[in-house]
Specification:
Length: 194
């Protein structure tokens, strides 16, 4: 990437909101070098901990220096100096033959899912964006047999966030649905996957 491209990329990132940049940095586990160890140990991140400029610099450095440039298509990338990221539960989708053969939910093609998620993203505000992360965390926590705590936590989340996660994991109910149907679809996903 040329210096001009780096500057252009940097300007584009500076237009993004701090929370979006922080989310991507956290997802990639890339933080400012001087603060990396301390930030990785914290349970939350705030603007007092790291500035927008610091996040942008980290992402520019990551994109230009830390990954192989050829064949880069988000989210498929290969880091230069560490193993590629993995999604441990992703391989389980093929284990459950009935997972995608279900008449009570839409089976969405990858291309349509991407288009739908792009449209849903336009409707997200800060609260619903943060709630997507909370839902992901709730879905990966240990649960009891009745899933009572999970159900309660999911019902507290915004409708649009529940829809986003259901689309993302291919669990969008068929027909008219409300919060209860979305929560039930996510709980069934937890039972199948975990």
């Amino acid at each position: 990437m040329s210096d001009v491209d780096k500057k252009t990329f940097q300007k584009q990132l500076m237009k993004c909101k701090w929370v979006s940049l922080a989310y991507v940095c956290n997802d990639l586990m890339e933080f400012p070098k001087d603060e990396a160890h301390r930030l990785k140990l914290q349970s939350s991140l705030s603007t007092r901990d790291v500035t927008k400029r610091m996040l942008v610099d980290v992402l520019v450095d990551w994109r230009c220096e830390r990954i192989l440039q050829e064949q880069f298509i988000w989210p498929q990338f290969k880091p230069k100096h560490k193993p590629p990221p993995s999604i441990p539960w992703l391989s389980l989708h093929d284990v459950h033959a009935n997972y995608t053969q279900n008449n009570d939910r839409h089976t969405i093609s990858p291309q349509y899912r991407l288009e739908l998620l792009t449209e849903l993203t336009k409707q997200l505000n800060l609260h619903s964006s943060l709630s997507i992360g909370h839902i992901h965390r709730f879905l990966t926590q240990p649960t009891d047999e009745a899933n009572a705590k999970l159900r309660t936590n999911l019902h507290r989340m915004p409708f649009i966030s529940l829809v986003f996660v259901c689309v993302d994991i291919d669990r969008l109910p068929v027909g008219r649905y409300g919060k209860a149907e979305l929560v039930q679809a996510l709980i069934e996903w937890v039972r199948v996957i975990l």
